[in-house]
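Postdoc handover notes: sequence design on the structure in folder B. Input tokens:
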């Protein structure tokens, strides 16, 4: 085992690594960036030489956190004489999704009047259901639709509003429960003028703390009017001060303190109206408060008179348990270590992990759970958590992946987790690019340890990792919440990827032309599609004639010299996908046959195929080869992508029909009717076909494989149906698969 001591005269950090190469990347860890430290030291020298004082340390501010809410503007709501447009502002501090303190609200405030801005058309709004309304709806027998819309008797205006409401419903899909469409909303201003004091001291505010402000209509919490948030510490670790104007996220977006962005201007309401809230931080505090987490941690016992008074209740007084006491709870700690990453630790579990932290440092799977046990609202406990994290047995890369979800917003923890991924080989890392791309959404800033890690490894291996990272980022550019961040990363990669930039340019041109062709032929009749598709594909070939070879987005190893127009066609399904045959530059006798799809979200297909591929890898590691060949699939944009065609494959319909034919001997219409019955009532059609294809394989093994695949598919379907934020939880799915 090799130990490294890195630090300055005031602070030394102990790093324990098995691989000497990891020392190079230690300097890039967020929170321990040596360049940042040197820059801070130079700035301190300049300040001292010019007579300026050093920034105030956050740990020196012992006052409670205060904030002044001055005004709210353009609050979208339907004015009611009974409620008189009363709202209240609620303020709370969060660390990720965990509350740091109790929420504090202002009194009810009456509106100062309607704003000149007015949304164009109906907007979704919350309305409390009452028994009277239900009876009235039953009595009217359908006069009001399911969304709670009310009739309007205007000359031409009513009809126009109804038309807008229908289109609104189509745009929004299924509205959340309790949500209706407000036909004549207004934008109102409110003079708040209230100072809110939270029961939380400034010195205990963590580096990743988030200030969350929510507007509620009335006394209850059934009618949100919007929410906003801001990070208290910037990239330079200076605490926010002075006056700020926050853009409110629409109340159709659930309050999520661990959200990718907290800028509501990216989620504009219907009609372009953006609600805002103006606030000001406590003017009595210094304007240069800096978060200082690099202060030395002294080796002293935290019991007795030296123990902090605000230590959380679930931590007992005994901080130094004996080995005999550890042996008593050893079995329970082993059970906690075997729990999957989605397991919610109880208060007793957190207490147990924190008490016996010195005895379990060799179990890397317990490090994420220990960090979940830290009270991030207690500065002394956070400092101790940092010390323990660096002294812990370095977690394996598969364990470090679980430290990158939204439960770990602290920059230093996320930087250390990114460091641990350095030991992962390129082939293994390529299996998790999709998850790591989604995990970038949880980073507090564009520049992070994970972003640097992905860019560095992608530039080092452009053919494998760079290709995947580029299209994974490109597929998310339609999302206004992450388009800025992913755009920066794409630009950084293109500037430094060398010759791969030209290859990506050819792929982007190809995808744009295929999208244009799909947009043109999709609304046309079937008989006219073939001619138009031929014209568009001939144009693509003409534009690519100066290019010797180009890669397909599906796989950089799929190299082509052009499209075989005669063998390409438009499929007859609803989304009219395009069947394409590309000339194979490496093996002309075996062309690349793919399908371009526009209108379907292929990211779900990618996830399913990726999970099956990883499961096959795990099965083969245990000696089970089920002959699984997963086809390639890539999402290249919003509801756009490419699929590999599996030629000479048996479809489900063919399998069922073939089984019915062998069993009954029917043909023609009788066979079709029997196959339809088997599809509904015979549960072993696929299993029988798999056993037949297995040949000399052990049937018991194939039944076990079939049951495993069925369970996997069922688990995925349950996850899709139960999670509204499906893509943001990819990392959780993989953590549960790989760690259990």
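Designed sequence:
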């Amino acid at each position: 085992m090799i130990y490294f001591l890195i630090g300055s005269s005031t602070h030394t950090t102990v790093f324990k690594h098995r691989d000497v190469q990891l020392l190079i990347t230690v300097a890039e860890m967020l929170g321990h960036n040596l360049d940042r430290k040197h820059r801070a030291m130079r700035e301190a020298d300049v300040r001292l030489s010019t007579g300026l004082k050093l920034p105030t340390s956050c740990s020196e501010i012992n006052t409670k956190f205060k904030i002044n809410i001055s005004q709210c503007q353009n609050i979208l709501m339907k004015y009611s004489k009974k409620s008189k447009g009363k709202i209240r502002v609620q303020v709370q501090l969060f660390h990720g999704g965990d509350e740091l303190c109790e929420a504090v609200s202002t009194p009810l405030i009456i509106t100062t009047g309607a704003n000149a801005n007015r949304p164009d058309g109906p907007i979704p709004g919350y309305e409390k259901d009452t028994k009277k309304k239900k009876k009235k709806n039953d009595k009217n027998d359908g006069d009001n639709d399911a969304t709670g819309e009310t009739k309007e008797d205007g000359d031409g205006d009513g009809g126009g509003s109804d038309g807008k409401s229908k289109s609104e419903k189509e745009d929004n899909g299924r509205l959340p429960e309790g949500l209706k469409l407000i036909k004549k909303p207004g934008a109102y201003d409110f003079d708040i003028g209230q100072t809110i004091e939270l029961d939380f001291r400034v010195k205990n505010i963590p580096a990743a703390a988030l200030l969350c402000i929510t507007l509620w209509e009335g006394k209850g919490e059934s009618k949100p009017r919007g929410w906003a948030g801001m990070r208290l510490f910037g990239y330079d670790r200076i605490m926010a001060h002075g006056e700020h104007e926050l853009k409110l996220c629409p109340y159709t977006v659930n309050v999520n303190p661990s959200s990718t962005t907290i800028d509501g201007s990216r989620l504009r309401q219907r009609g372009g109206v953006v609600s805002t809230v103006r606030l000001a931080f406590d003017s009595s505090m210094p304007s240069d408060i800096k978060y200082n987490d690099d202060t030395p941690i002294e080796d002293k016992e935290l019991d007795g008179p030296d123990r902090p008074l605000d230590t959380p209740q679930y931590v007992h007084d005994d901080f130094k348990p004996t080995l005999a006491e550890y042996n008593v709870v050893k079995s329970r700690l082993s059970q906690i270590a075997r729990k999957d990453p989605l397991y919610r630790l109880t208060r007793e579990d957190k207490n147990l992990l924190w008490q016996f932290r010195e005895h379990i440092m060799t179990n890397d799977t317990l490090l994420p759970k220990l960090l979940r046990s830290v009270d991030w609202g207690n500065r002394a406990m956070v400092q101790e958590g940092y010390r323990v994290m660096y002294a812990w047995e370095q977690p394996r890369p598969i364990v470090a992946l679980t430290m990158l979800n939204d439960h770990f917003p602290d920059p230093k923890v996320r930087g250390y987790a990114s460091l641990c991924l350095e030991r992962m080989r390129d082939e293994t890392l390529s299996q998790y690019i999709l998850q790591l791309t989604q995990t970038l959404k949880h980073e507090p800033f564009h520049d992070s340890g994970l972003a640097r890690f992905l860019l560095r490894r992608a530039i080092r291996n452009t053919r494998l990792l760079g290709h995947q990272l580029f299209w994974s980022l490109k597929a998310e550019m339609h999302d206004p919440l992450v388009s800025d961040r992913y755009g920066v990363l794409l630009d950084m990669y293109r500037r430094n990827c060398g010759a791969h930039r030209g290859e990506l340019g050819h792929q982007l041109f190809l995808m744009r032309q295929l999208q244009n062709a799909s947009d043109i032929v999709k609304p046309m009749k079937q008989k006219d599609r073939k001619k138009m598709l031929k014209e568009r594909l001939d144009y693509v070939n003409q534009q690519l004639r100066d290019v010797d070879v180009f890669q397909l987005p599906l796989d950089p190893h799929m190299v082509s010299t052009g499209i075989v127009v005669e063998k390409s066609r438009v499929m007859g399904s609803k989304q009219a996908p395009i069947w394409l045959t590309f000339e194979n530059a490496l093996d002309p006798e075996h062309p690349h046959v793919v399908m371009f799809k526009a209108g379907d979200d292929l990211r779900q297909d990618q996830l399913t195929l990726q999970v099956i591929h990883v499961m096959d890898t795990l099965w083969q590691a245990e000696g089970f080869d089920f002959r699984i060949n997963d086809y390639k699939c890539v999402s290249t944009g919003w509801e756009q992508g490419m699929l590999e065609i599996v030629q000479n494959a048996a479809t489900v319909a063919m399998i069922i029909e073939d089984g019915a034919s062998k069993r009954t001997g029917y043909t023609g219409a009788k066979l079709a009717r029997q196959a339809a019955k088997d599809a509904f009532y015979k549960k072993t059609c696929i299993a029988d076909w798999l056993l037949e294809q297995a040949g000399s394989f052990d049937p018991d093994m194939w039944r076990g494989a079939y049951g495993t695949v069925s369970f996997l598919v069922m688990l995925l379907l349950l996850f899709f149906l139960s999670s509204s934020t499906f893509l943001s939880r990819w990392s959780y799915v993989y953590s549960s698969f790989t760690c259990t």
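Context for whoever picks this up: The radius of gyration is 30 Å. Don't rerun without checking with the PI first.
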